[in-house]
Write a structure and sequence with these properties.
Layout lengths: L1 E4 L2 E5 L5 E5 L6 E5 L4 E7 L4 E6 L4 E4 L6 E2 L8 E6 L5 E5 L4 E4 L5
Antiparallel strand pairs: 1-2, 2-3, 3-4, 5-6, 6-7, 7-8, 9-10, 10-11
């Protein structure tokens, strides 16, 4: 899966644990390796933020696609997808009906 923002493609291989970047969509380089499998990557233009979610509650955030910050884990359930609401809160959905809302303060 891939997202595009700030002139950069950011990708995760489905069931892989690496985050890759590319300026042209052809040549890719690894910029982050997680300890768990990653599910998806999204770019939210209004807030200029890349977000990756994955297994065991993994949430990674980047403002530039190169430098990634792991959010504090509040659950160990596998996460599947992420969206952002108007105020910048993230909505993260996971297996068994898990829904998290927030940014650095999860509910």
């Amino acid at each position: 899966k891939a997202a595009y923002g700030k002139g950069l493609f950011v990708g995760v291989v489905i069931d892989g644990n690496e985050i890759l970047i590319s300026e042209d969509g052809v040549s890719w380089k690894m910029v982050y390796e997680s300890n768990v499998r990653l599910s998806t990557v999204k770019y939210f233009d209004k807030h200029q933020l890349f977000v990756v979610v994955g297994r065991e509650g993994e949430i990674l955030i980047s403002e530039d696609g190169n430098n990634w910050q792991r959010e504090e884990k509040v659950i160990t359930t596998d996460l599947i997808d992420v969206a952002m609401v108007e105020n910048g809160d993230l909505i993260v959905v996971g297996e068994i009906g898990i829904v998290l809302r927030g940014r650095r303060k999860w509910n």
